[in-house]
Amino acid sequence: MLAFAVLGGPTPAQAGGQGSSNFYENANFGGYTIPVSGSGGTCINLASNWHNRISSIKYNTSKVHLYSLPNCWQESGYPDQSYTAYEVPYVGDQMNDRAKSFRIW
Questions:
Q1: I need a labelling partner for 102 at 20 to 30 A (CA). Which of 12, 23, 37, 54 fits?
Q2: CA–CA separation, 7 vs 57, rounded Å?
Q3: What are phi and psi of 27, to 5 degrees?
């Protein structure tokens, strides 16, 4: 089952619970957060108010892949990046504040 929601809009950053994934607008898990879930590498587009805002992530899955284009498109000149650590305090200069879509496994 695939789910994606902004519950009541952005909320102050909090650590994710069991089985949850969270994207944060600031490095080191600061600022607002958006809880997300998904499986099997299904592409999920971020809500437009979360385009170009992600700086750090926490998740309890095996991999997260961020894309700078909608619909998980990969194109020359537009970065994308995979993450396999469960806590990523900074997504790196290439993807900081650039994500528009993602996949999680």
A1: 12
A2: 17
A3: -60, 160
More confident residue, 9 or 91: 91
Task: Note the pLDDT tens digit of each residue in 33-81.
Answer: 999 988 888 999 999 999 999 999 999 888 999 999 999 999 999 999 9
Name the E strands within the chain.
Answer: 3-4, 11-12, 21-26, 30-37, 43-45, 56-59, 64-67, 80-83, 87-88, 101-104
Q: What is the DSSP secondary structure assignment for residue 20, as one 8-state letter?
A: -
Alpha-carbon gap, residue 92 to 105, rounded angstroms: 20
End-to-end CA distance of the chain: 12
